[in-house]
Design brief:
Blueprint: E1 2-5, E2 8-11, E3 62-69, H1 78-81, E4 82-85, E5 88-92, E6 96-101, E7 107-112, E8 121-126, E9 129-134, E10 139-143, E11 149-153, E12 158-160, E13 163-168, E14 190-195, E15 201-206, E16 210-214, E17 219-223, E18 228-233, E19 239-244, E20 251-258, E21 261-267, E22 281-286, E23 297-302, E24 305-311, E25 318-323, E26 330-333, E27 338-343, E28 346-351, E29 361-367, E30 374-377, E31 382-385, E32 393-399, E33 402-409, E34 412-419, E35 425-429, E36 432-437, E37 441-447
Antiparallel strand pairs: 1-2, 3-37, 4-5, 5-6, 6-7, 8-9, 9-10, 10-11, 12-13, 13-14, 14-15, 16-17, 17-18, 18-19, 20-21, 21-22, 23-24, 24-25, 25-26, 27-28, 28-29, 29-30, 29-31, 31-32, 32-33, 33-34, 35-36, 36-37
């Protein structure tokens, strides 16, 4: 495949067995699925009815756009060295950071960047820049269009609504020797905002002593040990509202905010210092009103419904409850340890009790959003949701040493085509499927969409 960079043109020769290493190292370790940092994060909005029908015969609706070796990446670490961010595929090699267009695999730029072990660290694009953070917490910032270096900092900075944010949290939740908040030797948390283009410090907020960032809503929160909460705009650090919440009984230890909720956690008032298991008690509040939310639950919009994650009283288990936001009436609920992925065809019920997979999440069945009635059996398939928030998705399934790619079409699973090699990691966005094969090769396919979209 020809690739170009400036006035240079490089030809990469790919033999028929390009994706097969000389000796199969096996699949690399699979880290926790980032999209499941909260299992309830899968219950987001889009609910349309699906229709029943028989599975269609396989058809070719896949076209390979590009295939190439990942620069500076070994076959043992490649799957974690690739990051998908917006319209870019970013590769953290041992000596370079390389950007490819996720639409067609074209080389956008490559710039010197040292990564002792590819995959240990991360890269992301935002607001006209690319941020690369090493495993030691050093942040390097590059121009998104050219790859030119802009600035660096010996700290971990990540983008929040166009602002670079660094969070320093002090205190150990689980150490009984950690002093109570407000004690002289307990340092306050600190959050700093930076101009992403120049690295200039925009503002610094000290916790009281707690501080946290809600990256989904673009705000910074501070809280006192008495539960007094202030919400700050991430762009200038100014307070936009204040309110009163409360920590559970015991020693306050953390403040956390995600989507539309705020969580305050405390260490139980009485416990043995050597106890192996520690249960943090937490109260949850609405981000805007600071009204208390039911304990053990977390809710997000689901189109015309609202999806609530509820603990069923068994350690490590939860269920998703679909409710009517107007009346509060329950519509239906999933089985234990099942999440929901809204798609244009209905709710895909996911099994999140097993091992994380870098190619998707285990699908159980497609459900009618109104009743939860199973429409299509998806046992054996992984579902990979689009990263652009469109509600699009593809289904993946290993068959021998190949991978079937499918969609739900006319009430059944329709196989669109077959990838010639097993994948170690995949990304999906805007009808483009990118997968890492053989540890250090990447291929990109255009996936057909229903109706020719």
């Amino acid at each position: 495949m020809p690739t170009s960079l400036g006035d240079r043109t490089e030809m990469i020769d790919l033999s028929d067995d390009w994706a097969l290493p000389a000796e199969d190292p096996g699949s690399p370790p699979l880290p926790p699925l980032r999209d499941l940092r909260r299992r309830a994060g899968y219950a987001v909005a889009l609910a349309l009815a699906a229709v029943l029908g028989a599975s269609a015969a396989p058809v070719r609706d896949i076209a390979e756009l590009a295939a190439f070796e990942l620069p500076g990446v070994s076959q043992y670490t490649g799957s974690e060295a690739v990051q998908h961010s917006g319209d870019l595929l970013l590769v953290l090699g041992t000596t370079s950071l390389t950007a490819y267009a996720s639409a067609d695999g074209a080389l956008r730029w490559s710039t010197p960047y040292a990564t002792p072990v590819p995959g240990q660290g991360f890269a992301t694009a935002a607001a006209g820049v690319v941020l690369a953070v090493s495993d030691t917490g050093v942040t390097s910032v590059f121009d998104r269009e050219t790859g030119a270096p802009l600035w660096s900092a010996p700290r971990q900075v990540y983008p929040v609504d166009g602002v670079g944010v660094q969070v320093a949290v002090y205190g150990d939740w689980f150490d009984p020797a950690t002093p109570a908040p407000g004690a002289p030797d307990r340092r306050a948390d600190e959050v700093t905002g930076y101009d992403l283009r120049t690295g200039r410090t925009l503002w610094t907020l000290r916790g009281t002593p707690f501080a946290a960032v809600n990256s989904e809503r673009g705000v910074v929160l501070t809280a006192t040990a008495q539960g007094e909460v202030a919400v700050h705009d991430v762009h200038d650090g100014h307070v936009v509202r204040r309110g009163q919440a409360g920590f559970p009984p015991g020693r306050p230890v953390f403040l956390y905010s995600f989507q539309d909720s705020v969580q305050l956690g405390s260490m139980p008032p009485v416990r043995e210092p050597a106890a192996p298991d520690v249960t943090i008690q937490q109260f949850e509040y609405d981000l805007v009103t600071l009204k208390a939310l039911p304990q053990g639950s977390y809710a997000v919009p689901c189109g015309r419904y609202r999806c609530v994650s509820q603990s069923d009283g068994t350690e490590g288990e939860f269920r998703m409850l679909v409710t009517d936001p107007a009346t509060g009436a329950d519509r239906w609920r999933t089985g234990p340890d099942q999440a929901l992925l809204p798609t244009g065809d209905g709710f895909v019920v996911l099994d999140v009790s097993g091992t994380s997979n870098m190619r998707g999440v285990d699908a159980v069945y497609l459900a009618d959003p109104d009743t939860g009635r199973p429409l299509v059996d998806l046992d054996g398939w992984l579902v990979l949701g689009a990263e652009d928030g469109s509600g699009d998705y593809v289904l993946l399934r290993d068959v021998g040493q190949t991978v079937q790619v499918a969609r739900i079409v006319e009430g059944g699973v329709r196989v669109l085509g077959v990838l010639p090699r097993r994948a170690q990691r995949c990304f999906y966005r805007a009808s483009r499927l990118a997968c890492v094969f053989g540890g250090n090769h990447l291929a990109l396919w255009r996936i057909g969409t229903p109706g020719g979209r």
